[in-house]
Amino acid sequence: MNKPTKKIYIYLPVLFSMVLIIGIIIGNRIKTGTPLDKNLLSLKHHKQTNKLTNILNYIRLDYVDSVDENKLTTSAIKAMIRNLDPHTQYISRERFAAVHDQLMGSFEGIGVYFSILRDTLMVIRPQTGGPSDKVGIKGGDRIVKVNDTTIANIGIDDEEAKAKLKGPRGSTVKITVKRLGTPQLLDFEVKRDIIPTSSMNLAYMVNDSIGYIKLNTFSATTYEEFRAGLEKLKEDGLQELIIDLRGNEGGYVRQAINIADELLSENLLIVYTKGNNRPKATSYSTNRGIFEEGDIVILMDERSASASEILAGAIQDNDRGVIIGRRSFGKGLVQEQLNLSDGSAFRMTIARYYTPTGRSIQKPYKGEDFNKYYSESYHRFANGELTSIDSVKVNDSLKYTTPKGKIVYGGGGIMPDKFVAVETSTSRFYQNLMRKQIIYQFAFYYLDRNRKKIEKFKNVKSFIQNFKINHNIIDELIVFIKEQNIEFNKTEYKKEEERIKVLLKAQISNNLFDDEGFFPVYHQIDKTFKEAVNYLTAN
């Protein structure tokens, strides 16, 4: 499946400008634009609307050169919303499908995990039982043509590759691959189908009592996935739970509310919203929870946003669990969507989210400089907030108290109960490996050359227990590093040897078994995860 095309897990002090998935208003209310002036505009605004219409018509009829009316209208819309807030947005018809697929939990395509390496689209593995798997496409195949059009060595990027492989369910696409050990090119006719995408990376038992669930987004299927994972963990002896929301930028808020309901006892406030033109709306827990007892830890970082913050806030403010990690992003604005007749959409902020103690999740924003708003994580790093708890500033005027007397702070984002600094490395050698994706590339390269030997491990448990990163593999890695024009620094390598070995094994395991293979290996060097396990073990 065309699920993240470059599935790379890099844990460095590299901070990202974030494009947040928008949290849709509680209940997922969607409006349709028929007609726009009747539904959204009152008579007192009619004169201003006429002014805008008159100007656009004047330009269209009498401007000195021809104009693109669609482009002009889009520019006008974007100029208007720059005076609003960072999360009100216009979504073009071209972008709408991609945004929609991301939140719906499925798309239509051929069902392969792929990556682009050395200007070639490599199949990491086909989705088991998916369209590509059914016709015989295998891990390691190089896709060189799509419908007889060459795509190798032309500089194709991820989005272009997705566009060529996706298509309506039932349509067919001709895929031509180069397979190692086979002299001729192989042609496959693949019938596209619905490809489910998972918002839950995995659910597994860390030990006899502690379970772990990682959510990467809140799509339309997240609650169902979470509940199924939680039920499986309970069957395996779950007593304490870690929920990993690091990097989870949000999505459908209703999914987060439903998950919170499974963890809270009856009649507890989960979240409420209010806005200038919208009355206060509240969501409370019901009596349906299947894990209302047992300790909970939620892992968060500066990229956790929106629905992630609502779930974390509900758990923290109701004294149901603790937050470990770093202050979350601070996206607490409610959007409502207006679908427009040309296939585009307009998402407008109508209210703010508040946690049960009354904290506003939304961090401050000013004026039209939204780039500064989205790049705030850079400032957090520069100010030392990501590396030292002493640099985290709290506003004493925004102090709140939970029912059991714990102090929590407002002002934007969810503050952790236990701070864990961002992973850092002073080794330039290691940073070069990460920046140039060397470990990720070598993991695929090694698996590609040793596929028959490695695929004897039929399950995750067997691979993790029995596969070792030995001296021969490291020697190959060193040769590979030098081939990429990176100077091998033996002293710096020795300092980072354990981390490099674990990451390499995790990436090979990921190529074989997806997230179920990656995370249990990576957790050996995951400081925040270890803090959570230590906390639960001590309590």
Structure explained in plain terms:
The protein has 539 residues and is an alpha+beta fold. It has three domains: 106-196, Pdz3 Domain (Roll); 200-332 and 357-424, 2-enoyl-CoA Hydratase, Chain A, domain 1 (Alpha-Beta Complex), CATH 3.90.226.10; 428-531, no CATH class. The chain is 37% helix and 21% strand. It is built from 19 helices and 22 strands. Strands 1, 2, 14, 15, 18 and 19 form a six-stranded mixed sheet that branches. Helix 7 (222-235) runs parallel beside helix 8 (253-263) and helix 8 (253-263) packs parallel to helix 9. The model is unreliable at 1-41 (pLDDT under 50).
Class based on secondary structure composition and strand pairing? alpha+beta
Gyration radius, in Å: 25 Å
CATH architecture of the largest domain: Alpha-Beta Complex
Which stretches of 5+ consecutive residues score pLDDT under 50? Answer: 1-41
What fold name goes in the CATH topology slot of the largest domain?
A: 2-enoyl-CoA Hydratase, Chain A, domain 1
List the quaternary state of the chains.
single chain
- Provide the CATH superfamily of the largest domain: 2-enoyl-CoA Hydratase, Chain A, domain 1
Instruction: Give the total of beta strands.
Output: 22
The CATH class assignment of the largest domain is Alpha Beta
General shape: globular
What composes the largest sheet?
6 strands, mixed
> How many helices does DSSP assign?
19
Mean pLDDT: 87
Helical fraction equals 25-40%
What is the straight-line distance between the termini? 41 Å
How many domains, in number, for the residues? 3
Which band does the percent of strand residues land in? 15-25%
